[in-house]
Amino acid sequence: MGILLDNGRILLSEDFIIDKIIDREEEKKKIEEWINKKIGLIYIYGSSGTGKTHVIKKILENYKDKTVLYLNCSATNTFYKIMVNCLEKLKELKFIEKFHEKGLSGSELFSMLREAIEKNSVYFILVVDEINRLKLEDIDNLMYIGLDAINNYKNGWVFIIAISNDVMLDTKFSEAVKSRLSIKIHFPRYNVQQILDILEEYAKLSLIENSYTREDLFKIAEYVGNLTGDIRLAKRLLLSIAEKSDSRLDISKMAEAITENEKFMWEREIRKLSIELRLTLLAVIEANRFYEKKRETFVTANLKRFIFSSRIEPNLKNIYKHYCLICEEYGFNPKSEITFRNSIDELDRQMLIRKEVKGLGRGKGVTSLVYLRGYADVLEPIIRKSIEEVI
Ligand SMILES: Nc1ncnc2c1ncn2[C@@H]1O[C@H](COP(=O)(O)OP(=O)(O)O)[C@@H](O)[C@H]1O
Ligand SMILES: [Mg+2]
Q: What's the confidence (pLDDT) of residue 316?
């Protein structure tokens, strides 16, 4: 039997967007107002699963008469690629003829884009989603396009909508961008009630009538709301519990669904990483384990207040040592410390780890501490398996 309707699986898949927008009308209205005001740049931010992509895609449906391009940085991951995509869009709409990007730089491509826009009086709306996956200088270049449009275009217009899943990202923008970025729109995390409202809508569309109760959905909403507030997780849990159910939503399967989901999510993220990044992530896991043990010893011996905290926190130098050991274990040549640091930044951008820069006290400089975003016990076997698969 089962309780999923024919297209239930599709409806509950992560990226499927239903027609309704629940509880985000205000954000939608605000964004639309800014678009109509001919501002060059807005910045939208909020953690994963807060409805940013959903709302923006709904908005774009109303701008079909304009030149609209939506890009996501998990695929379009450099400024250069963003420019190539923009030019291709203009070519598709016959604003420009063939162009050859080979041998040109990102900024040369940008000049071509600008010229085409002015010449044809194009009103161009460019949405770049998940910009936290870009390098900082690429983000600056992207933002600059919108800031430049405000001041310098005689004909045509570019409107940049930059979206980030990393709520702290704007603290890392260059001063030039920071000081001129005036419109920021925050998508706060959903609370339990909002998650329940959204889940109910999805349940209504994807499950057999009367096969679930509001109390069942509340249990999922409560769990997710107290964890990350990520709607994506709520939808996945609902799907996975529904798949395990016969004639009624069997909420007793929730624990099982949570474990499966956690594993699935990490497997998918880790599969996207190069071998180098997998080794680096494993080093972060090992180092965090090591320091956790060390901290415990200090706490037990009641010595914590005597020891300078950065000595019992995982800093970059120490993680690099773990990295070298891991490379040796798997028979790889360790890369230089500079390359390693770049890998750490890349993992930070992919939101697999969290890098925190800490001051060491007056006149003593700074150190970077690196933490995991998932549980070491879940992550370690997954990542080891993924490394063994490659070798
Ligand atoms: N307010 C909402 N109403 C209906 N569905 C929503 C709402 N917010 C999020 N969703 C759904 O939840 C999932 C995750 O939302 P998404 O917009 O991708 O989050 P974000 O882009 O902020 O990470 C999508 O399937 C989306 O359609
Ligand atoms: Mg999104």
A: 94
